[in-house]
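Hey, can you fold this one?
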Amino acid sequence: MLPYDQTAKNYANFAKGQKAKDGEFNYKVNYGVLGVMFTETDCKNDTGKKIADCEAKLAITNDFFGAMNLDQIPTGAASPAESANAWWGKTKSSVPLKSFMEGLDTREFFAYNGSLTTPPCWEGVRWTVLKNAMPISANVMTLIKRNFGGNVNFAGYRGNNRVI
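Sure. Predicted structure:
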């Protein structure tokens, strides 16, 4: 992961190369976004029986989010929600993206054309959203909500908080 100032510089250079200008919608940027939904679970159904394959997938999401040091993200004025500097450090190890991707159920999905959910909200994005959610633990969900949920100022107004 690059330091924030280098990432911001790379982003600015990339943005200069785009043909889109404010208010101009007659262009193609051509991004692809894979959307994955998560459902908080302890891998047991309503009767207390184990859900098939859930524990293995839960281990995958725990490893994936665990590598990101969500518990190390600062709160208060230094948090990504309130600071223009959304970079909070290094991961514990490499993020296990391959095993996460292999754990996804890609058999059914929704696809549509849209835009980025973060500024500059460019059009030209092909969204693919998986129909079946991945399990996520209560602990990880708590950390995500603590760090990113409901914060209109997330990442100095650059966060994923588009008004619905």
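The mean pLDDT is 78. Let me know if you want another pass with a different chain boundary.
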